[in-house]
Design brief:
There is one protein chain. The chain is of the alpha+beta class. The chain has one domain. Helices cover 39% and strands 16% of the residues. It has four helices and three strands; from the N terminus they run βαααββα. Strands 1-2-3 form a three-stranded mixed β-sheet, covered by helices on one side.
Length: 109
């Protein structure tokens, strides 16, 4: 019916909503560690708008060309450049196909 579904991971973003998860004193202890880690990992998105990188990128793609077994991650380079990284999901393709066929059967009922 022309509907497509993809999985997107926005990454980790430090925002005012994130700060409410833990008490303030814990964030003061964790922030230096988070910034050190952010230089070595791509999933810590430094720019708040970077969380939309994978969603916007995905929106611009032709859905029929996307891999349904891939998760699209918003990432940031050490220099702050936002990009999208596709990563294969740990999914058993045979089981996924059986589930899909079962869903089609249920839809017909």
């Amino acid at each position: 019916q022309g509907l497509y579904s993809s999985v997107v991971c926005p990454g980790l973003v430090m925002s005012n909503m994130t700060y409410r998860i833990l008490p303030v004193f814990l964030w003061k202890l964790l922030m230096p560690i988070m910034w050190l880690v952010s230089g070595s990992t791509a999933v810590f998105v430094k720019a708040p708008l970077g969380i939309f990188a994978s969603s916007v990128w995905l929106f611009k793609q032709k859905p029929e060309y996307l891999d349904s077994l891939v998760k699209y991650h918003s990432c940031t380079s050490g220099l702050g450049r936002c990009y999208v990284e596709p990563r294969k999901m740990d999914v058993d393709e045979d089981t996924a196909e059986k589930l899909y066929q079962k869903l089609l059967e249920l839809e017909e009922q």
